[in-house]
Amino acid sequence: MKHQEIMLNTLIKESGLNGFSDEEIGDDHIYTGLETPMRADAFDITDEEKKEKIADLFGQIMDVMGLDRTDDSLNGTPKRVAKMYIEEIFSGLNPANKPKVALFDNKYQYNQMLVEKNITFYSNCEHHFVPIIGKAHVAYISSGKVIGLSKLNRIVQYYAKRPQVQERLTNQIAEDLKTILETDDVAVIIDAKHLCVSSRGIKDDTSATVTSYYGGAFNTPAKLAELQNYINQ
Ligand SMILES: [Zn+2]
């Protein structure tokens, strides 16, 4: 897996992915796999060290753009950005921040579909580092185990707090839920707005992107119709 990712990265650097330029990869939001591309040494330094480095480097970006960092308004910005990156908006890159999920036995013998809908999330596009704002709908049919409802929400937030592409976010949530719940009967639908599409580039303010993952029983017309009915209510 790692080897493949590195090869793919090299390929992109040398010739662009399938002949696409860096610009095209960004604007067409091409994504390269289920795993967030991370280097093996990603956690060799501590969060505190990361914050110091990012603050220093972000300060340099501001300098290059000609901003006067002695101004009281800008003075603390590099540190604020670094803290926000590591502790908040990109905290989902660190597996240490993964929500702890306890499984419960399905005492009530509830074996129908459970849908947690309209989970609001904020993520960031990995091609442009500007926000993706959306709602996730998550559903599963218990195989005998259940999890607390707030955990579904927390799993969505964890994967959202990474540089993302929507397809990967959808699949990462689905794969994790399948593992946790020990079932293939999992569905994830994400409806989101990408600020890199609305505020720049093509500047389309009305379009939204919908992605879905339907596992196991959700591929039957009856279950799919039931799920869509709940979501549309
Ligand atoms: Zn983008």
TrEMBL record:
InterPro entries: GTP-CH-I_C/QueF, GTP-CH-I_N, GTP_CycHdrlase_I, GTP_CycHdrlase_I_CS, GTP_CycHdrlase_I_dom. Residues 58-224 form the GTP cyclohydrolase I domain. The keyword GTP-binding applies. GO terms for molecular function: GTP cyclohydrolase I activity. Keywords: GTP-binding, Hydrolase, Metal-binding, Nucleotide-binding, One-carbon metabolism, Zinc. Gene3D superfamilies: 1.10.286.10, 3.30.1130.10. Homopolymer. This is GTP cyclohydrolase 1. It comes from Dokdonia ponticola.
